[in-house]
Amino acid sequence: MNVVCIMQARIGSTRLPGKILKKICGKTVLEHDIDRLKRVGNVKKIIIATTILEKDSIVVKEANRLGITYYRGSEEDVLSRYYYAAKENNADIVVRVTSDCPLIDSEVTEKIIQHYLDNIEKYDYVSNTIDRTYPRGLDTEVFSFKALEAAFNEAKSKSDREHVTPYIWRNNNLFKVEQYKNNVNYSELRWTLDTKEDFELINRIYKILYLDEKYNFNMNDILKLYKKYPELYTINNIVEQKKI
Hints:
The chain is α/β, with parallel strands linked by helices. Helices cover 36% and strands 16% of the residues. The strands form two sheets. It has a seven-stranded mixed β-sheet with strand order 5-4-1-6-8-7-9, with helices on both faces. It has a two-stranded antiparallel ribbon with strand order 2-3.
């Protein structure tokens, strides 16, 4: 099985422009994303899916610097961008992540992928994003290329095309959908990057835990940090997540 991780990335952001190229501990957010995803053992290839807009040529430049395959497609029809990126790279299984998650946990992502692979006859789609128990920012969706192709061919609404997977998980009469849950609910924690408050929190976490490039701190390390520094809870707890 060719398991391909596709990360959507673009330079535009309404709330925090240029966020994926902001520097944390000397590296761009996108580079931290890639570093952490490279530790996912059951992914064979990582692809950055960006847009054909001229301003996103800087994302391509960063992908080239990092030695990562890229695909350029529609800005608004992200579903088509994923479909063609997956097709071009002969994906059997697609792992969807986004570039605003520099705290993504490789161990969590690997477990979700493995759960899908171990139950490949039972499920078309597995994620930790719908019925949330993990912190926002550890988001991982895993689905078959066949399900992606069906969504690409059938999804009509702007929301379904822009957000890639809603057509799959909203149509559980057509697709077999599974939610991967943690045994403790940490869904109130926000570890994604969309505002200056998010950046302040993530930057602080990195400055404490990113001791050297070989140290892959994970979700449990960050949770221990919250116990030691409870003020971390208040840095971005008023930020509202955009609605799909």
